[in-house]
Design a protein that fits this description.
Shape: globular
Number of domains: 2
CATH superfamily of the largest domain: Pseudouridine synthase I, catalytic domain, C-terminal subdomain
Helix content: 25-40%
CATH class of the largest domain: Alpha Beta
Structural class: alpha+beta
Number of strands: 11
């Protein structure tokens, strides 16, 4: 049985997220369905990040295993040939059985795009068209509040049973003149569900309304209560850019120390 590591890109617009759900169209569901049609057998696929409905990816990392006697190039070509245009296997390579996409993640990079003016149709689905003027400097200052190791209980779904302490390595905001869009770059080893969208939505809201200040954000953050007035940014603006792993020795050691898959 050969293990394969895949890097997959997808437009999440038409999908109810990454993870398989009965009676729903998901990215994993389509990958598994088309594999079975091509190769005549079922396959199990595990991804590094369970992106939500409407969220996109350029660098989702996936592991699967199969007993197919086929070269990686032909394997990738045949599988890609049956996938819809909004899902694409960028790379496919054999890996050691010790590799797991959810172990030993050094850093994940997410992008969130904001269009301050109405975008062109061919990029509109990849960002938030924000119709209200906002203070970009204050927006950036608010986002810096989240950098570091903190309890993000105020910026998750509220249903989490595990620890809500996470580390954000860095957040930057850059202007993309070609697309007339702001790109928020968020980096860290792992994030809670809705966490990035809630951070962006909160900072954008504070930067929009003159009666709000960064101190309001700090108060909400300190309260550790997800029930607050600051909004969650829409899913279509979020994109999983890439995932970087520790070296091989690190993830072998981590697997020895964990009996179950971490909820990253």
């Amino acid at each position: 049985m050969q293990h394969y590591k895949l890097i997959i890109s997808y437009d999440g617009t038409n999908y109810h997220g990454w993870q398989y759900q009965p009676n729903q169209v998901t990215v994993v569901g389509v990958l598994q369905e088309q594999y079975k049609k091509v190769f005549g057998a079922p396959i199990s696929i595990v991804g590094a990040s369970r992106t939500d409905a409407g969220v996109h990816a350029l660098g989702q990392v996936v592991i699967c295993r199969t007993d197919l006697k086929i070269t990686p190039q032909k394997f990738k070509q045949a599988w890609n040939g049956r996938l819809p245009a909004d899902i694409h296997i960028r790379s496919l390579e054999p890996v050691d059985a010790t590799f797991h996409p959810q172990y030993s993640v050094r850093q994940k990079t997410y992008w969130y795009h904001i269009f301050p003016q109405r975008p062109l149709p061919f990029v509109a689905r990849y960002g938030l068209y924000y119709r209200f003027p906002f203070d970009v400097k204050l927006f950036e200052e608010c986002l810096q509040v989240f950098v570091g190791n903190h309890d993000f209980r105020s910026f998750c779904t509220g249903d989490e049973q595990e620890s809500t302490v996470r580390t954000v390595d860095a957040i930057r905001v850059i202007w993309l003149p070609h697309y007339q869009a702001y790109r928020v770059i968020v980096q860290g080893p792992g994030f809670l569900r809705y966490m990035i969208r809630r951070m962006v939505g909160a900072a954008l809201h504070i930067a929009t309304y003159h009666d709000l200040t960064k101190e309001h954000l700090l108060e909400v953050f300190a309260a550790k209560n997800p029930e607050h007035f600051l909004p969650t940014a829409p899913a279509q603006g979020l994109l999983l850019r890439k995932i970087i792993y520790q070296n091989k020795l690190s993830y072998i050691q981590k697997e020895k120390n964990h009996d179950t898959i971490n909820n990253i």
